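I'll show a sample.
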Amino acid sequence: KEYFTLNNNYNGGVSLSSNISEKIDFNIGPNLTYAQIISNGLKTTATNYYITQVSGKAQWIFYKGFFIHANGTYYNYQGLGAGYNVNYALLNGGVGAKFFKNNSGELRLMIFDILNQNNSINRTTTETYTEDSKNLVLKRYYMLTFTYTFKKFSVGSQPPEADKPPFPMPGGGFPFPGGGGPPHGSHP
C-alpha cells in the first residue's frame, strides 16, 4: 500500500508601522497560521490546528543616542493534543547607546525572554501516527553587544581609468591600450 502525508499551511497577517519622529518608531500586527495535515496511514486522518501570533516592536531614542528597545510576540496554539494547546508571551527588551561620528558605534544590553515563557511546540504526522512535542529551548538570557559600522563611501566617485581592471571583450579577448584592437601586425 502506498502512504502519503499532505501538509498545507495557510498564513496571513497585517502590520501597522510608524515612524512618529526620528526618535520613536514602532510596528505591531497579528498573524494567523492554519495548518491542515492529511494522512492515509492505517486509518485516514485529518488534523487541523491554528497558531495565532500578535507581534510588536518599539524603539525610543530618549537622549543623545541613548535608546530603549523592546519587541515581543504572543503565541496561541489551538487544535493540538491535550497539554499542547498553550499560549505564552515572548518578550525581549534592552537599552543601548549610539556613539562615534555618524553613530557608527553601538553598545546594547538585551534581555531575551524576560517573562521566562519561551516554548517550542511541533506537530509531526506520518502515515502511522500524529505526535505533538515540546522541545527544550533557551529560556531567559542576557547579551551585551558592541557593533561598529564602517561607512567609507563617497557618492559619485570612480577610480581613475588606470586603476580599472581589464574586462573581457566580445569574443573572449581583452582591450588593448589606445583603443580597441590588437596592435598592428599581430594576429588574434
Summary: Residues 165-188 have pLDDT under 50 and may be disordered. Residues 57 and 71 are 4 Å apart (CA to CA). DSSP finds no helices and ten strands in the chain. The first strand starts at residue 5 and ends at 13.
